Amino acid sequence: MLELTDIEAGYGRTQVLHRVTVPTGKVVAVLGHNGAGKTTLLRLAIGLIKPTRGRVVFDGEDISSLAPNKRVARGLAYVPQGQQAFGQLTTLENLQLVADGRRRGKALIDAQLSRFPALEKFAGRKAGLLSGGQRQQLAIARALITEPKLLILDEPTEGIQPTIVAEIEHTIMQLADEGINVLLVEQHIGFALEAAERYVVLASGFVTHTGEGGLAAASTVRAAMAI
Ligand SMILES: Nc1ncnc2c1ncn2[C@@H]1O[C@H](COP(=O)(O)OP(=O)(O)OP(=O)(O)O)[C@@H](O)[C@H]1O
């Protein structure tokens, strides 16, 4: 379980996050308008930026000063915004990049190909020719090959056609059932709250609301975000 407590962080002299504490849960949604600091919080969780105050604790261990690769080794995985993949490599080669050298590498790939039928269908297609949604599924599949305990997802449904949005939403719910925790930044508030056990709303780097997830929380959150 990831604990982010009393975090301050930013870029150079610009402080972005102010005394941010995130509730713990199997699926935790981070909500807020553009520029609120959501991506910064995720980058901090994976270790791309370091806090100037506060603690990052994972499974009881203080990982605040650990490098990202060490955090991955401990069971964190990060899927940044933007459906990133190696466009000149095939779908399968993108997965092999992560799986090669791992024990049971082939089984790990097969598990993800059966999770995402579109990836199985286009295993031989260059990733650059996949749809945005398929590339997002590939990015999630790559992260899952590292067998994370916690998957950190930054806007996984952004700019993606509705049918694939539904599949990605289904995947996130499934991960929680499989015992993989999720820290999720997501613009679709309804879905984020449906999936989330807890949520936090950020505004200008401050926590303005936290609470239990569930669709019933949507009106509270929309009011809090003035939308
Ligand atoms: N590399 C950077 N250097 C300096 N400032 C940055 C950097 N990245 C982000 N910021 C600033 O930090 C603030 C928070 O940005 P962040 O990307 O965390 O917000 P966000 O809530 O994820 O927004 P969005 O929904 O638009 O992705 C913004 O004011 C942004 O301009």
From TrEMBL:
**Any coiled-coil ranges, and where?**
none
**Listed GO molecular functions?**
ATP binding
InterPro entries in alphabetical order:
AAA+_ATPase, ABC_transporter-like_ATP-bd, BCAA_Transport_ATP-bd_LivF, P-loop_NTPase
Q: Which residues form the ABC transporter domain?
A: 2-227
Q: Does the keyword ATP-binding apply?
A: yes
Q: Does the keyword Nucleotide-binding apply?
A: yes
Keyword terms of this UniProt record = Amino-acid transport, ATP-binding, Nucleotide-binding, Transport
Instruction: Report the sequence similarity comment from the record.
Output: Belongs to the ABC transporter superfamily.
Q: Which PANTHER family match?
A: HIGH-AFFINITY BRANCHED-CHAIN AMINO ACID TRANSPORT ATP-BINDING PROTEIN, HIGH-AFFINITY BRANCHED-CHAIN AMINO ACID TRANSPORT ATP-BINDING PROTEIN LIVF
Protein name as it appears in the record = ATP-binding cassette domain-containing protein
Organism of derivation? Paractinoplanes aksuensis
